[in-house]
Every structure is written in structure tokens, then in C-alpha cells.
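User: Predict the full complex structure for these chains.
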Amino acid sequence: MTVYLVRRLIQALFVVLAMSVIVFVGVYAIGDPVEILISPDADQIERERAVRALGLDLPLWQQYLVFLTNAVQGDLGRSFVFNEPALKLILQRMPATLELAFGAMFLSIIIGLPLGLYAGLRPNSPASKTIMAGSILGFSLPTFWVGLMLIMVFAVQLGWLPSTGRGETCSVLGFVGLTSCSSGTQWSFLTLNGLSHMAMPALNLALFKISLVIRLTRAGVRETMLMDYVKFARAKGLSPSRVTFVHVFKNILIPVVTVVGLELGSTIAFSVVTESVFAWPGMGKLIIDSINVLDRPVIVAYLMIIVLLFITINLVVDLTYSMLDPRVRLESKA
Amino acid sequence: MSQAAIGGAATPAAPRKDKVETPFRRFVSEFAESKVAMFGLIVFSIIALIAILAPWIAPQNPYDLAQLDIMDGRMEPGTVGGAGFTYWLGTDDQGRDMLSGIMYGLRISLTVGAGSALIACLVGASLGLLAAYAGGRTDSAIMRLVDLQLSFPSILVALMILAFLGKGVMNVVIALVIVEWAYYARTVRGTALVERRREYIEAAQCLALPTHRIMFRHLLPNCLPPLIVIATMQVARAIALEATLSFLGLGVPITEPSLGLLIANGYEYMLSGKYWISFYPGIALLITIVSINLVGDQLRDVLNPRLKK
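Assistant: Here is the predicted structure of the two-chain assembly.
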């Protein structure tokens, strides 16, 4: 186990390094680094002085080392627009994104599991067919367009929910320590107003996951129903509800929860779209705004943070998976 | 079709007569078994035709400023404009007919989607074949890259590349190719690994045929079925991803609006109840994606040997 863990950590470190090279080359070599680091209205002499001061006359590999040294020390540059450290800016926005992502995951489970269970238990009923057709739509519908339609129906025509923004937030002492840079982390889900702002974006982000959970649950139920232990439980005369919820449900839960966990990363990535539609002030909205105004230090910082986040999630998922399912061998032959 | 010819070349020559059941004919009849898939195919053909013929059948050229009347801006679907013609799907803020806008938008969406899927297919399939055929270091280097890339969601990779390159139709195509090649490479490698141990490859090697000939004329044709399935699905994914990127303002420029950009243009009017500017392009996008997916689903069932009766 320890050997495996160490090997995975070394691998992860290697990936982070590789990604930092890609991001560095992407932003610092393809783009004009002077443009990134110096304000555009500086004159020629100022530019040359700055180029030398910043070490941009050095060969590329030396520049990369400087970039890397700063990055390791947590210095990913300052935002042009906000004139604040890029890292701080992103960490401030992170709770909003995480809140949205977890809200979406929660919705996908509480909506997806019962529907999938029903569709699996009665595969031929009209309701099940409707559920399955709905899940195909959930896969095919472009997220951003569904978001717009949600706004149109629930905010503009019915007026039930607010269309954009995050609403009132409320800070809880216990959560303050979660992000080191912000002075107090604000959460929406603790106020009624915040919850009403969160409902639509979370549902929008959850749509794809709901379809996924429905399909996984349905397939799992149909497979499990044919197992000998289910037949035995039935033969024993247990009530159908006990068979369903104790014998079947428990067994399908592990793969479903694992896949939902695996999807956390992509939920965070796709929140870029949802946040733009609903003007949700998270990391995703920040990166899109930064790309549009070419606030490159923020772009670099976002990309590096998201790479780290993904590698961590992948690592945790792999480890959890091997713990949950003993059939997954830890010592791979590679 | 080339498939029938290839099938004939790979298996010991069956005499070709017109009424004989060739693999291609069998494929067509099996595909036609599903009414839903046929419906999808017909719908997609109509959409493709509309896209190709847009300049001739669209009621208006939405990018010819002389034909636009700013007084007709934001009209509801079905209203008759100043020039005396009916805007069946309404107009946008510039007074463009939405129906024409959608037809022209489809052109761009489909070109970008199909074009990037095709290039990605060429790149990915070649690398996948190479990985399977060469094995060893080449294989593990290519597959490491594939694994690395697939561990990040496609939207993130595309976002990263467009952040480096900036807007533009070509840049979107490049981003989509980089996002998609890994899927093709993985699929082709999987099939090719099985196929390369077959006797016909051994026979070709005994004949001392050049490596590229064995790879592309012997190995590739036998890896086609899963490749066709994944290519179909990837076209739909590429169209959806392009629309998303354009909606975010990172995709195609305003001069070449795809469906995604049309939807984005309607965003600000949505809040004042002018739904049609965003609604109809979205419906067009949805029909396109669903029809391609229906065809892809049936292709997967027909071409999957495991599901053969």
C-alpha cells in the first residue's frame, strides 16, 4: 500500500511538472510575456528595462525555472484587473464553485437514484420509458442552453426564482479555516435567499449527472435482480420492499457513489458554463472573464490550480476505489 | 462503398455478384432495422442539406447588411417585416431573420464539428495504429499522453488551448482536434492490438510488405467498425463543445456566428422575455445532436460483434 501510494504521488508530481511546462510554454512562449507582465501603455525604454528586470532576456529554460520557483512559493503573479495576487483571487472564488458543484452532486443523487431504481424495477412501464427518454435528453441537451431555458421559464415567465447572482451569503465560523487566503468564507446554502439563487444553477449543472445516475442505477438494478442471492431472498419470503432496499439497493450503491465521486472533477470543470449563464461568482466565471480581458496571470494561476485539483481528485478516487473494491489490484505490473 | 471493397480484400476473395449479400449490404439492412435510427438519419440528412444549401434556400442573407432593416429588430416570430416578408422565427437585435441565421449558423457548426472530428480521426487513428503496431516505448509514450489527457474533462482542455491561442474558427478546430484525438487513439489501439496477432498480418509480414502498407492497408481496415461508431459520436460532441465554447465567447468570432454564438446573442434579451433569439438556435442544435446520437447508437449496435445474434 505504501509503495503504491509513493509511486502514485511521484506520478502525480510528474504530471504537475509536465502541466506546468505546458501552461508555461502556452502563456509565456506563445503569447508575448512582456504583454502579460507589463502594462500595455509602457513606452519602449520602460519595456526594455522591465524585460531585463524580469529576466525575460534569459533563455527559455531559465525563465521556466524562475516561474517554477515562484509558483512553488505560491506566487503566480498579480492580476492586472483586480491588482491582487492571482492565487488569492482564485481561492476567494473557490468556495462558490465548490458549493455549486456539491449542490449539483447532491441533486443528482437524490433525483437520479429513485428514478433509476424505479426504471430498473419496472423496465417496461410507460413511466420508466419516459424516464429513460428523459435521460437521453439529459445527455444530448447543451448545458448552457438548458440554463437559459430555466431562466426563461422560472425567472422571467413564472418569476419564482431569481435569475442570476449568488444572493445573501452567510459565514460560519467552522468553515473559515477552509481557505487560508479569504478572511471568512461565505456560503449561500445557509440562507433561504441564497438557496433560491442556488437552485437553478445547481439543477442545471446536475442535469448531466442525473441522467448518468439514472442509467447506472437502472443497469445495476437490472443486473442485481438476476443474482442468486436476490432470488434466494425472495424465495425466503422477504417482503419486496426489503429485497429492494436491503439486498439490491446496497449492492448498487457502491458503483454509483464511486462514479458520482469520479464526476466531481468534471462537475467543477463544467461549472465554467453554468457560472457564466447564471452569473455565479465562482472560479469558472472568473477564468472566462480573465480570458476575455487577457488577464493572463489569473489564467495561469487558474490552470495550475485546476490541474492540482484534478490530480488530487484522481488520486483520491483511485485510492478509494481500490479500498472499496478489493478486486482492483494495487500492485500494477507496470 | 469502400467498406465492401475492403471486406473483400481482407477476407479470401468472394466472387462479387450483384444480388449476393455483401458485408456492406448486410450492414445497411441491419441498420435499417431500427426505425428510430432511420428517422435520425433522415433528420440529419435534411439538416446537412439545409446547411449546404443555406445560401440558396435561406429567405435572407443575414450577413448582407443591405438586406437588413434595423427597424425590424427583435420582432416576434410570425410578424411581417417592413420589406413585406414574414419572419417565421422572429428577428434578432440587428433585424436579422432568425430562420436564415440558423441556416447559416448550421453551416459553421457542422463544418467545425465534422471537420475537427475528421482531422482528429486521422491523427488519433494513425497514432493509435502506431502504438499498437510498434509496441514497446512508442506504445507507452503515446498511451501515457492519452491517459494524461483523458484524465481532464474535454471542456477544460479546450478552454486551456483557446486561452493560449485566442478566438477564431481555425483555433476552435485545433482545440477540438486536440481534445478528441485521444478517444480515437485509444479505440483504434484497442482493436489493433487484437488484430495484429491475426494470421493475415503475419502473412503480410512474411511477404515483406513495407510497414506503412501493413498498417494502413491491412490493419486499419479491420479496425474500422469501432472507429466509425466513435467518429459519429464525436461529431455530435464536437458540435456541442463548439457551441459551448462559442457561447462562452471563446469560440468562433462574431463575423462567423455558429449556433452557439446565436444563442449567446439572445442571452441579454432573454430577461426581457424575448425568448426566440436564443430558443430556436438551441432547438436546431438539439435536433442536430440528437439525430447524430440516434444514428451513432444504432451503428454501435450493428457494428458490435458481441451483440451479433
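The longest helix of chain B spans residues 98-134.
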